[in-house]
Each structure stands twice: as structure tokens, then as C-alpha cells.
């Protein structure tokens, strides 16, 4: 588990370092509001594909759900 | 699709319209694999603004599955009558279970209802949800609560959510035995604006599952003994951890790219890496998005292609093998009119591994194709 903790803490630290470095004002967020800037994890089409791949792959989660939820797993 | 299910879908659509739902989305998804699995999945999603701060959402999904992804029934011996020739179970069990391949020709449906409520107050948002998924031999119910907080002029968003899920499975040939599974999960997320055209998201997820984690239809042959296969046995507990990073960068010519990475590990010693890359090209109200996804995992510590002798945990679940997958896809999204949005997606999915499929009496599950279409009415 130590390797995991190191990896995950590293990723979180990157996030923490990134925090506070932005000073984007509300009127400068026109690009961020465009459809091309939407994260793919938010797309509704992802639900079906995510459900399809968990019948083949062991990895799941990281998308706000607890995983599982059907007998096809 | 039965009349009752069709009516339920219509009721959701009608309810959304009657209550002047803020939006309504109808999807049709299909997946077909080269080895015979066919999934057709229509869904209806509607949202309703109770007031400027509170939104309800309701989603109904139906999965209609036919044939098996791979027919390892051909490699199984009958549970109650081991003397029966392997692969003859379909004579007396029809319509049993999708992925276990307990029958040669089956049809199965899964219905899922998702209900959610969100309330936003100033810089924070609270949410709660309930999900119920039901099959002929499986029932899953999940409750989730969570919230998010915005900081630094909404350039930083921190989110936290928790889920409790209760699953119950009952094999069709033994309805008197119900196996249960209880899962608790927590997700911690951070979304950060890094510049006018740059943002990133980090997520850390942990889940603990306790209960029955095997497949009641799966049996494992020990050595050359085909007359007395043993029921698959998995550990009755699994903890998993995911660390996810997503990075989005705007590019010139109204385009953008996204790079996602997920690290996965669980207490069955499976380690997984997922890398995904997408390029988005926007022209007016239309967006074209080709994407590529690669996934690789190591095998579970108790998984074997073939077992020479019995051991505490035995499984030939192909999900637990070392494998890699690749997915190539392209999606088109855009406005058909002022209040109607169309999305179309094509995906091709392939799996590679080093298993000896002669031991499964089955074809190698190699590739599948998914088509998705969605219409959103706002």
C-alpha cells in the first residue's frame, strides 16, 4: 500500500500546488465555458461505455460512484 | 422491450414535459461484440428546476442483452449433475444470466432508475441521489450524498461524496439462497482553473466491498477432473483505490485536447493504468471529438488460467487476468435547432491477453463496436 499512498499523495500534491496559482477573473472565463472545454468524465455518453468496460476490466471508480450495481460484473 | 417498460419511459417523458422540465434527454446505445454479445440500451433523462437553486433529475435506463460475451457454458459442467456433459445446461436453464454464459442463447434485461437532487447556495452545492438497478437475478440499491465548495473566485472547486450500495444476487436455479454485498465508497475531488484556457481535475476514490464477490454461475475445473468442477470462490472483501487526473488545454482554431490518467489498485493485487487522450474541434455550435483510450492491468493473485489443485480462492473470471484493452472513438455533438442538441458516437473496443483459450472451450473475446445517439431538448 505504500506505493499507492506515494502515488496518490503525489497526484494530490500536484493538485495542491496548482491551487492558488490561477488568477482568472470571471470575465476571462469565456473559453472555459465553451463546449470543447467540458471534461469527458461529465459526458452522458460515458455512462454506457463505462458500464460496458467494467464487464471486461477490473478497474472501476474515480467517477463519483461506488462501482458495482449489476450482475454483469 | 415489454409494454410496461415502454410505458414507464413514456411516463418519465410526459412527466418531464408536464412539469416543464428544464431539459430532457433521450439516448439509444448499442454494443455488439465479435463473439456474440449484443446490448441495446435506451435511456431517458430529465431535469426539473424546483427553484433557481434546486434541481431534481430522473433517469431511466434499460439494458436488453442477448447471447453471451463468450460461451464458457461450453466449458462448464452442470452444478447439480456433474455427470452431464459440459455445455448442456442450456437445455433446462433458459434466460439465465448474461455474462456468465450459463446458457447458449439467452435474453436478459436490466432496468435502472436514478433519482437525484442538487441545491446550490452561494459558493457551495449539496447533492443526494438514489439508484436502483434490477435484473432477474440481481438487485442493487445505492444511496449517495455529497457536496462541493468553490474558492478563489470559483477557480478552485473541492468536492466530497459518499456512497452506500447494497447488492443482492440470487442464482435462478437456487432462489432460496440470496447472496449479499455491501459497498461503502468515498470520493474526494479537486477541480482547478490554471489559466484562461487550462483546467485540471484530480480525484481520489476509495471503496470497501464486503460480501459475495464471485459469480454464482461460474465453476472451475481442477486439473483434468471434468466430472466434479468446483464453484468459483473469491475473497469476501475487496478494497480499491483510484487516483484520477484530467487535464484540459484549449488550442488555437477553436480546438482543445484532454489527457486523462487513472491509477487503480485493489486488495486482490490488481494494478491498473488507464490513459485517455481526446482532441476537440469546435466549429460554431458543432463539436467533433476523436479519442483514444488504453487500459492495462495485472492479474489478481489467485487467478489462474488452469488450476492443478484446489486452493482457498479459485476463479477463471477473465476480468481478473492480466490484460490490455484499447478503445478508439469519435463523437459529434451539436445543435440541430435553438433548443435541440444531437450527439452521435462510434467506439471500437479491443482486448488483448496471453490466455490459452482452449482451456475455456471458447473463442477469444477480442473486439466490440458501440454506437450511441442522443437527443437533448432544452
Describe this structure in words.
The complex is a heterodimer of chains A (73) and B (378). Chain A is an all-alpha fold and 73 residues long. Chain A has two helices and no strands. Chain B starts with a helix and ends with a strand. The model of chain B is unreliable at 69-75 and 90-104 (pLDDT under 50). The interface between A and B is large, with 56 and 111 residues.
Comma- or semicolon-separated keywords:
heterodimer, A: 73 residues, mainly alpha, 36% helix, B: 378 residues, mainly beta, 16-stranded antiparallel β-barrel, 18 strands
Write the SSE topology.
The complex is a heterodimer of chains A (73) and B (378).
Chain A: H1 2-18, H2 45-53
Chain B: H1 3-18, E1 23-33, E2 38-51, E3 54-66, E4 107-121, E5 124-134, E6 138-151, E7 156-169, E8 179-195, E9 198-211, E10 219-222, E11 225-231, E12 237-251, E13 255-266, E14 271-283, E15 286-297, E16 323-337, E17 340-353, E18 367-377
Antiparallel strand pairs in B: 1-2, 1-18, 2-3, 3-4, 4-5, 5-6, 6-7, 7-8, 8-9, 9-12, 10-11, 12-13, 13-14, 14-15, 15-16, 16-17, 17-18
Overall outline of chain A: elongated
Unreliable parts of chain A = none
Measure the end-to-end span of chain A: 25 Å
* Biggest interface, CB < 8 A: A-B, 56 and 111 residues
What is the overall pLDDT average of chain A?
A: 73
Q: What is the straight-line distance between the termini of chain B?
A: 27 Å
The percentage helix of chain A is: 25-40%
Flag low-confidence runs of chain B: 69-75, 90-104
Strand content of chain A: under 5%
Strand content of chain B: over 45%
**Strand tally of chain A, please?**
0
Across the major sheet of chain B, the strand order is 1-2-3-4-5-6-7-8-9-12-13-14-15-16-17-18
- Evaluate the radius of gyration of chain A: 17 Å
Nearest-integer average pLDDT of chain B: 83
Task: Provide a concise account of the structure shown.
The complex is a heterodimer of chains A (73) and B (378). Chain A is mainly alpha-helical and 73 residues long.
Amino acid at each position: 500500500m505504500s506505493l499507492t499512498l506515494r502515488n496518490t499523495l503525489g497526484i494530490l500534491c500536484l493538485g495542491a500546488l496548482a491551487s492558488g496559482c490561477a488568477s482568472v477573473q470571471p470575465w476571462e472565463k469565456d473559453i472555459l465555458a465553451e463546449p470543447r472545454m467540458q471534461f469527458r468524465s461529465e459526458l452522458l455518453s460515458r455512462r454506457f461505455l463505462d458500464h460496458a468496460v467494467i464487464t471486461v476490466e477490473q478497474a472501476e471508480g474515480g467517477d463519483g460512484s461506488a462501482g458495482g450495481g449489476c450482475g454483469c460484473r | 422491450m415489454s409494454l410496461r417498460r415502454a410505458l414507464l419511459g413514456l411516463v418519465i417523458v410526459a412527466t418531464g414535459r408536464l412539469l416543464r422540465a428544464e431539459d430532457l434527454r433521450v439516448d439509444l446505445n448499442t454494443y455488439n461484440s465479435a463473439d456474440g454479445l449484443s446490448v441495446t440500451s435506451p435511456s431517458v433523462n430529465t431535469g426539473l428546476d424546483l427553484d433557481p437553486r434546486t434541481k431534481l433529475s430522473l433517469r431511466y435506463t434499460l439494458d436488453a442483452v442477448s447471447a453471451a460475451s463468450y460461451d464458457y457454458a461450453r466449458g462448464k459442467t452442470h452444478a447439480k449433475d456433474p455427470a452431464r456433459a459440459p455445455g448442456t445446461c442450456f437445455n433446462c436453464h433458459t434466460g439465465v444470466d448474461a455474462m456468465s454464459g450459463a446458457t447458449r442463447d439467452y435474453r436478459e434485461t436490466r432496468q435502472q432508475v436514478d433519482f437525484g437532487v442538487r441545491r446550490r447556495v452561494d459558493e457551495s452545492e449539496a447533492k443526494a441521489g438514489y439508484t436502483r438497478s434490477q435484473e432477474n437475478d440481481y438487485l442493487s440499491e445505492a444511496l449517495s450524498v455529497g457536496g462541493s465548495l468553490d474558492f478563489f473566485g470559483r477557480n478552485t472547486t473541492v468536492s466530497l461524496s459518499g456512497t452506500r450500495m447494497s447488492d443482492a444476487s440470487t442464482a435462478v436455479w437456487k432462489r432460496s439462497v440470496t447472496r449479499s454485498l455491501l459497498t461503502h465508497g468515498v470520493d474526494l475531488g479537486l477541480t482547478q482553473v490554471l489559466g484562461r484556457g487550462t483546467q485540471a481535475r484530480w480525484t481520489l476514490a476509495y471503496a470497501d466491498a464486503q460480501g459475495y464477490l464471485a459469480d454464482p454461475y461460474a465453476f472451475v475445473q481442477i486439473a483434468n477432473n471434468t466430472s466434479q468442477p468446483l464453484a468459483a470462490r473469491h475473497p469476501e472483501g475487496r478494497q480499491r483505490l483510484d487516483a484520477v487526473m484530467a487535464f484540459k488545454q484549449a488550442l488555437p482554431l477553436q480546438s482543445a485536447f484532454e489527457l486523462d490518467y487513472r491509477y487503480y489498485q485493489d486488495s486482490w493485487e490488481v494494478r491498473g493504468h488507464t490513459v485517455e487522450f481526446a482532441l476537440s474541434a469546435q466549429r460554431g455550435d458543432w463539436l467533433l471529438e476523436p479519442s483514444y483510450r488504453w487500459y492495462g492491468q495485472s492479474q489478481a493473485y489467485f487467478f489462474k488460467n488452469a488450476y492443478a489443485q484446489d486452493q482457498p480462492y479459485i476463479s477463471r473470471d477473465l476480468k481478473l487476468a492480466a490484460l490490455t484493452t484499447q478503445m478508439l472513438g469519435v463523437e459529434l455533438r451539436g445543435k440541430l435547432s435553438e433548443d435541440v442538441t444531437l450527439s452521435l458516437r462510434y467506439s471500437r473496443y479491443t482486448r488483448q491477453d496471453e490466455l490459452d483459450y482452449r482451456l475455456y472451450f471458447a473463442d477469444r473475446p477480442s473486439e466490440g463496436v458501440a454506437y450511441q445517439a442522443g437527443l437533448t431538448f432544452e
